[in-house]
């Protein structure tokens, strides 16, 4: 019985850690995506790498 309780406790702890890790990975991915989008907009509007193109009038869509 003690081993089974210990196994359950370990599985519960493992699940909590996986949940925290997934949440952190999601946050980090979102932050990285927003950083890239902001950087791309700044380059387009400042005439950076794509100066020959006109600045977009609507929201920036990355394909």
Radius of gyration: 23 Å
Instruction: Work out the strand percent.
Output: under 5%
Number of discrete helical segments? 1
Intertermini distance: 56 Å
User: What is the domain total for the residues?
Assistant: 1
Describe the structure.
The structure is a single chain. By secondary structure, the chain is an all-alpha fold. It has one domain (1-63). Helix content is 71%, strand content 0%. It is built from one helix and no strands. It has one helix at residues 2-46. The radius of gyration is 23 Å and the shape is rod-shaped. The model has no long low-confidence stretch (mean pLDDT 83). One of its GO terms (biological process) is negative regulation of microtubule depolymerization. InterPro entries: CAMSAP, CAMSAP_CC1. GO terms for molecular function: calmodulin binding; microtubule minus-end binding; spectrin binding. It holds the Pfam family CAMSAP_CC1.
In a nutshell, what does this entry contain?
The protein has 63 residues and is mainly α.
């Amino acid at each position: 019985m003690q081993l089974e309780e210990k196994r359950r406790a370990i599985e519960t702890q493992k699940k909590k850690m996986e949940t925290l890790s997934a949440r952190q990975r999601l946050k980090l991915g979102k932050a990285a995506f927003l950083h890239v989008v902001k950087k791309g907009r700044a380059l387009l509007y400042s005439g950076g790498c794509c100066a020959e193109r006109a600045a977009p009038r609507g929201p920036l869509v990355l394909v």
